[in-house]
Amino acid sequence: MPNRSALSWLSLLFPVAFFVAFYWTGLDAWFYQDDFGWLNLRHDLAGWSDLPGILFRPLAHGNVRPWSERVPFLVFPLLFGMDPLPFRILAFLTQAANLVLMWMIVFRLTNSLAAAALAPLLWTLNPGLAPAMYWSSIYNQVLSTFFLLLPFWFLLRAIDTGERRWWIWQWAAFIAGFGALETNVVYPALAALYVLACARRHLPRVAPMFLASALYAAVHFVAAPLDKSGVYALHFDAGLVTRLATYWSWALGGVFWTTVLLTAAGAGFLAWRTVRREWVPLAVSAWFVIVLAPMLPLRDHLMDYYLAGPAAGIGFLGAFAWAAAERSGRLWRVAAAAALLVYAIPSGIAARRVAGWHYARSRATANLVLGVAEVRRQNPGKVILITGVGTDLFRAGVAHAPFRAFEIPDVWLAPGSEKPIADPRDFVRLYVRPAERAVEEVEQSRAVVVDVSRGWVRNVTGTYRPNARALWLAFSL
Fold first, then answer.
1. Can you give the pLDDT at residue 342?
2. Which of 46-50, 56-60, 337-341 has the least mean pLDDT?
3. Is 301 helix (H, G, I), strand (E, B) or coil?
4. Domain residues for 436?
5. Are 426 and 278 contained in the same domain?
6. What b/e readout covers 422-434, taking b as 16+ CB neighbours within 10 angstroms?
7. Model-level pTM greater than 0.85?
8. How far is the C-alpha of 375 from the C-alpha of 241, rounded, in Å?
9. DSSP for 95-128?
C-alpha cells in the first residue's frame, strides 16, 4: 500500500496537473481588448523619472495595481518583446501557487488528503476562473487571490506555532496585496471570521488589519474619487441581493435546477455543522460572499471574471462537505459525491464554454493584428484601411489601440465599415478614415485595403480601387 507521503504528493500534484490540462489552451491565448491599453503604457515611459507616476498614479477608473498590471506590462515587452506567452505563464504559475496554498489550507483544517485535493479541483472547474486563464489584463483577479490565500496560510501557521514571525509574514503579505487589487481590503474580514470560529484569543492581533484596510480605502478614494455615473458607479440598494444571486448562479454553472439543488445542499450542510457548533466550515465557505462583496455595488458592470477569487469559497465548501462525509458513513459519502457531481458537470461544461470563447476571441485578434503587421511589412509607408470588422472584433482588437501598441501607424477602418458595428456611444467613428482622404489615398496607391470578414487578413485593394469613390464618398454626405 502506498505510504502517506506518496499519497500526499499525489493529492497535491493531481489537481495542479488537472488545472494545467483543463486550461492548457490558455497558454496559447493572445492579447485582446484591455491588454493593448496596458501594452501602450510603455510609450509613456521616457525616462526613470516617469516610472513612479506610471506605477502608482491612478488609471482605469482610479485603480492603482502596480504588481498585477503596471509591472508585467512594462517589464515583459522589454524582456521578451510583444509575446503573450510570458504573461500566460505568469498567470498559470500564480494560479498553480493558489491551488497549492488552497491544498495546504484545506489539509491543515480537515486532515483529509481527499478533501485537500478536491478543493482545488472544484475551483478549477468553476467558470468564473476561466477568463483569467486567457485574458492577461485580468491577471489581477488571480494575483489578488494569491494575496488572500498567502496571509491566511501565515495566519494558520501563527496560530499553530505561536511564533511571532508568522504574524509578521501575514502582515507583509496583506500589505503587499493592495498592489494587486482593491478587493484586498476584505482580508481582515476573512481572517477575523476564522479566528472567531476557532481561535478567539487571537482576535486582538487581527483587528488592527481593519484599520489598515480603512486607511487604504480612505487614501484611495481621496487620490481617485469614485465615479458618480457610468458602469463603475456604486449602487448600494436592494439589488445587492439580486446581484449576489446572479453571481452565485453563474458560479454553479448557470443551470437553474442544479443551482437550486446545490444551494439547498450547501445550506443544509452548513446548518448541520453549525448546529454541531463546528464554525470553521461556515467561516471558510464565506469566502465567496466576502471576496465578492466589493463588486456587488457595481450594478451596471456584472462580469463573470469577478468570480475568479470568490469561487475559492465553493472549493472550500465542497472540501469540507466531503471531509464531513468521510467521517459519517457510506450513505453520506454517496450523497456528498452526488452533490459534487451535480456541481462539477454543469460548471465544468460552462468553464470549457467560457474558455473556448475567450480563446477564440484572442486568436481572432491575433489574426487581425499580426495580419495587418504583415501587410505593413509588405507595403511600408502606406495607409491601411480595414473592412469586415464586426462588433466583437472591434471591441477586442481595434478599440484599445492595438496598432499603436505594436507600432503600426496609419491603420484605420475604411469608410462605411462602422455601419455593422454596434457602438451606442458612437466611439467607433474615431477609428474611421475620412472618406475624401481614403478615396484619394486608394486611387493614388498610397493606401492598402484589407478585408477581415473571413477571419484572416486579405488584401482587397484591387477590388476597391475602381469603386472607392462611388462606395465611400456616399458616407461623407
1. 95
2. 56-60
3. coil
4. 379-476
5. no
6. eeeeeebeebbbe
7. yes
8. 51
9. HHHHHHHHHHHHHHHH--HHHHHHHHHHHHT-TT
Rounded Cα distance between 191 and 170, Å, is 10
CA distance 379 to 72: 32
Specify the number of domains making up the chain.
2
Whether residue 364 is contained in a domain is answered as no
- Strands 383-387 and 447-451, by their bridges, are parallel
296 lies in the same domain as 438: no
**Structural domain contains residue 374:** no
461: cell is: 485593394
Read off φ and ψ for residue 29, nearest 5 degrees.
-70, 150
Residue 2 confidence (pLDDT) above 60: no
Helices 139-161/85-110 angle, 10° precision: 30
The whole-angstrom separation of Cα 38 and Cα 451 is 27
- The last residue of a domain, from among 359, 393, 420: 359
Number of neighbours of residue 404 by Cβ within 10 angstroms: 15
Q: Are residues 255 and 403 in the same domain?
A: no
- Are 348 and 403 found together in one domain? no
What percent of the chain is predicted at pLDDT more than 70?
98
Note whether 123 and 227 are same-domain residues.
yes
Count of other CB atoms within 10 angstroms of residue 127? 26
Q: Could you tell me if 353 and 384 lie in one domain?
A: no
Average pLDDT, integer, range 361-372? 97
* Amino acid sitting at position 342: V
Amino acid at 62: G
Neighbouring residues of 307: CB distance < 8 A, sequence distance ≥ 6: 126, 127, 128, 129, 247, 250, 251, 292
| Same domain assignment for residues 327 and 429 | no
Q: Is position 372 within any domain?
A: no
- Output b/e per residue, 439-476; b: 16+ Cβ within 10 A: bebbeeeebbbbbbeeeebbbbbeebbeebbebbeebe
| Secondary-structure breakdown of the chain: helix, strand, coil percentages, each rounded to the nearest 5 | 70, 5, 25
333 and 405 housed in the same domain: no
Query: pLDDT digits over 9-54, tens only?
Result: 999 999 999 999 999 999 999 999 999 999 999 888 888 888 888 8
